[in-house]
Amino acid sequence: MWAQDDYIYANAQVNHGNYFGLGFGSQMDGSDMVVFFGREGTKEAYAADYMAPGYKSVSFDSQQDWESFGSNECNDQYCNVTVRRKMDTGDFDDYQFKKPFDSVPIIWAYDTSTNMGYHKARGFWENFDYDLT
Q1: pLDDT tens for residues 38-96?
Q2: How far apart are the C-alpha atoms of 108 and 100, rounded to whole Å?
Q3: Which of 60, 65, 97, 133 is most buried when burial is the number of CB atoms within 10 A of its CB?
Q4: Omega within 30 of 0 (cis) for the link into 100
Q5: What confidence tier does 128 reach under pLDDT thresholds 50, 70, 90?
Q6: Does 118 have pLDDT greater than 80?
Q7: Contact at 8 Å (CB) between 104 and 97?
Q8: How far apart are CA 42 and CA 59, in angstroms?
Q9: Can you name the residues that pair with 50 across neighbouring β-strands?
């Protein structure tokens, strides 16, 4: 992840038929998320805006703020996907990134399917720093 101007950028390498999610917050409940999906049987991938109203499931955010940035590079195994969104989207459900410097707690999860009912692995970065100066 990195920040430039009024945007925050995220890049992920996702295998076909898998997902990888990044959540902004110290726990799943209440976190804002961007989830990257690799389409099974294709050389295509995409990302979408989600939120976690609890610990067991995620919800599609009705205001999709993440947008593709640049071209997605794919091969037979995976795709590199880059997305961006405004640091302050005005969406109550979105994490509001601050300028010029911020430390963001990030949770992550992935699975070897695109079913987000459960994840194979998960983790937490307590202080992910980005700098806009």
Answers
A1: 888 888 889 999 999 888 788 999 999 999 998 788 888 889 999 999 999 999 999 99
A2: 24
A3: 97
A4: yes
A5: low
A6: no
A7: yes
A8: 25
A9: 33, 60
